[in-house]
Every structure is written in C-alpha cells, then in structure tokens.
Amino acid sequence: MCGLVVAIVLVVTGAARAVQPDEIMADPAQEARARALSRELRCMVCQNQSIDDSDASLARDLRLLVRERIAAGDSDAQVIDFLVARYGAFVLLKPQFNNETLLLWLLPPLVLLGGGLGLWWHVRRKPAVGTGKAAPVAVDGLTVAEEARLKQLMAADGSPETPSS
Known about the structure:
By secondary structure, this protein is mainly α. It has a domain at 31-97: Helicase, Ruva Protein, domain 3. It contains 6 helices and no strands. α2 (28-40) packs across α3. It starts with a helix and ends in an 8-residue tail after the last helix.
C-alpha cells in the first residue's frame, strides 16, 4: 500500500513544472507562448531538462528573460535568436536543421539504414541452419573415376557400415 502511495505522489509531482507563481505573466496568451518557448530551451545546469522543468536558478533567470523579451514585443523567433546568440545553439533542446547540424540529423537514419542492409545481406548469404540437408557439392571438374567413386560413396552412405576388424 505504501508503494502505491509513493508511486501516485511521484506521478502527480512529475507533472508539476518549476515555474514559480511570481514568474507567471498576466496575459494568458503571452504566458502560453513563454511556456512553449521554455519547453524548447535547455537548462544549462541540468542539460537534459528544459528550463520549464528545471528548478536551477539559471533556469529561473532564463524563464524570466524569455518573459521579458515577450513582454517587450519580441516574436518567438526573435526570443530564440536572442538566446542562441547569447548562449549558443546548445541552449536549444532540439537543434535546428542547418549546415552545422546536418551530420547530427542525418547520421542516425544512415546508420540504421546501413545496419538494416548489412543484416539483410548477412541473412541472405547464410545457409539454412538445422534443415538437416548437406550443402550441395560442386561436381564440376571431376574426372570420370572421381564421379564414379563419388556415386559409389553416396550409395554406400545410405547402407549400414560393416565394422572392420
């Protein structure tokens, strides 16, 4: 029972954001924009959390900065550009698609495609396992005597062997 209570508390508090009541803007439309932008920006302290989720003091400063820029009349793109100019592209949780990040965006799909092709090629080349069938024997280039001996051995393979004494 205690474990269930702990799980419920974790789920409920996990949905809570780090935005403090004194940060919330009076205009609901501007607050919605600020929250949307805050979810796209990386906390420089936590690194894998957005500033909307982080309790770090730097994240709070960035949330306030975003709200100041919105209140000053900046568009979403202008706010993002301002923060990227100030902190670098690392401040974005989802990197932009441009020449600098081309490899970052294209490498994972290319690796998956290459791995899939390699696996497909490996499976096609591998002989069937567990079928009980012997691999086919190439008889090209055998002399007449070798072919006759091969036929004799193959015919004898089906009969029981007699032990030699």
